[in-house]
Amino acid sequence: MLKLNESSKTVKLNDLKLREICPTIFQERPSSETSKHYTHIPTYKVINDMRALGWDVIDAQQVSARTKGTIGFQKHLVTFQNDDVVIDGSDGDTVFPRVLLTNSHDGKNAFKFQAGLFRLICSNGLVISDHNFSKLKIRHMGYDFSELKTTINELVSALPLTVESMNKFKQTEIDEAAKIDFAVKAIGLRFGKDNRLEIDYEQLIKPTRKEDEGDDVWSIYNIVQEKLIDGDFEYVNGTKLRKARKIKNFKQDLELNQKLFDLAGQYVDENVVIA
């Protein structure tokens, strides 16, 4: 069910704050590496149009520039939330849809929109599998507000698919062996399937809060996803015990999140009947 929930109110970032944390947003010209067919669209223009559609910026990041010449043109991520769009679960697990915008000014990326979910219980950000939203791109060959409006409407109209996936995750129960199997494959997604790490998988799938104490796919997916992204686990590499590092690079975060969503879908019983 999509509805307004007062607890979804978040801190909205103004332009002054955005200039501080992600100045690339305000780049007025493209990199010299772009082609003659490239039309520069400042990210802040899209942000202003998103605000007009009710979607406010709640976070922004940019990757580190590899060279001095790439400063101001590098890839960046802007996260939007609309306080009027909420998925309020009947089990009290409230989730807020978010729109993730990635862009760069070097001609290597189109504006790409992805769907994300913010889980109130654990303040956890999930990213929905890319294949549901793969066509939501605006290329740097021209831009107008109507195109953006159509793109966002398409994304919002696809939210029922997200709700259906979430409900199937919640209503499919798996046993302990399947949980361990999920955790092993999830570790492979972060460190490579041929990794030789020694990990206490029983600890990895252990809930950190009461709300995740369930035998359903949704619970194990959230438990493992949170620990892998936040680095909340230890492993032995060779003879050394190490603490996993939190993933801070948003490109790695997005990629791992999407793969984990797809992995969780492999454990879902497609015959489950959604109540």
Note down, in words, how this protein is organized.
The protein folds into two domains: 154 residues, no CATH class; 94 residues, no CATH class. It is an alpha+beta fold and 275 residues long. Strand 8 and strand 9 form a beta hairpin. It has eight helices and nine strands. The longest helix has 16 residues.
Secondary-structure topology with pairs:
Elements: H1 15-21, H2 43-52, E1 56-62, E2 76-81, E3 87-88, E4 94-103, E5 111-119, E6 124-127, E7 137-138, H3 145-157, H4 159-171, H5 176-191, H6 201-204, H7 217-230, E8 234-237, E9 240-243, H8 250-265
Antiparallel strand pairs: 1-2, 2-4, 3-4, 4-5, 5-6, 5-7, 8-9
Helix pairs in contact: 5-7, 5-8, 7-8
Brief overview:
The protein has 275 residues and is α+β, with helices and mostly antiparallel strands. It has 2 domains: 6-159, no CATH class; 172-265, no CATH class.
Summarize the helix and strand pattern as letters: HHEEEEEEEHHHHHEEH
End-to-end gap: 13 Å
Fraction in helix: 25-40%
Main pleated sheet: 7 strands, antiparallel
Spans where pLDDT lies below 50 across 5 or more residues? 1-8
Mean pLDDT, nearest integer?
81
